[in-house]
Amino acid sequence: MSVTELAVEVAGWGGAALILGGYTLLSTRRLTGESPLFHWMNLFGALGFVVNGWWHGAIPAAAMNVVWAGIAIYALIRVTGKARAGATPG
Question: Distance between CA 9 and CA 55 in Å, rounded?
Answer without folding.
Answer: 9
